[in-house]
Amino acid sequence: MWARIENNIAVELSDLDPEGRYHPSLIWVPCATTVRQGDLYDGSVFLSPEPESTPALSACTPAQGLVALFALKGITEESILAVIESIPNELQRYTARIGYQRATNWERNSPTMQIMAQLLQLTDSDLDELFAYAVGVAV
Fold first, then answer.
1. 124-134 and 62-73 helices, crossing angle to 10°
2. So what's the pLDDT on residue 52?
3. CB-hemisphere CA count at 13 Å for 85?
4. How, if at all, do strands 9-14 and 2-6 pair?
5. Burial level of 6, CB count in 10 A (0-12/13-18/19+)?
6. What's the rounded Cα separation, in Å, for the pair 106 and 113?
7. Dmax over Cα atoms in the chain, in whole Å?
8. pTM higher than 0.90 for the full model?
9. Per-residue pLDDT at 13 exceeds 90
10. What's 24-83 look like in SS3?
11. Which helix (H) or strand (E) holds 118?
């Protein structure tokens, strides 16, 4: 096997010896059959790039979020409203109520979601699970 290298990355693979078949400016190096396009080449060894982590899902509709909260944590809409009413600061309570009742999307990193997560005692891991579950809910 041979790999064509551009900018230290295997961009093309061939099982045919490239000698004399391509323009001399192209860099071909012998490689193992385990090398894949996109592998990094440091001049002597091929390395597979680190897999990109899947970004956490960060938005859902309120209906999806409510179903996910109940399915995963047993938290009902009534519980959410009660928690909002327990916020001592009037402006924060009003902001949370409007954010909850009028939002067309729940944004994982929004200030209201962060306050609600804290009040509902949800961890970052809980929020990741909630949003991952919520986007699959069909309502």
1. 120
2. 57
3. 6
4. antiparallel
5. exposed
6. 7
7. 78
8. no
9. yes
10. CCCEEEECCCCCCCCCEECCCCEECCCCCCCCCCCEECHHHHHHHHHHHHCCCHHHHHHH
11. helix 111-119
Distances (CA, A) of 92 to 1, 20, 38, 81, 101: 64, 73, 49, 14, 14
Amino acid symbol at 35? V
Q: For the segment 79-122, what is each residue's pLDDT rounded down to a tens digit?
A: 999 999 999 999 989 988 998 899 899 999 888 888 889 989 99
Half-sphere CA count of 74, side-chain side, radius 13 A = 0
Please list, in sequence order, all residues whose beta carbon lies within 8 angstroms of the beta carbon of residue 69, skipping any fewer than 6 positions away: 75, 76, 80, 120, 130
Query: 52-88: per-residue pLDDT in tens?
Result: 555 557 899 999 999 999 999 999 999 999 999 999 9
Average pLDDT over residues 43-49: 90
Question: Which tokens go with 59?
Answer: 């938005």
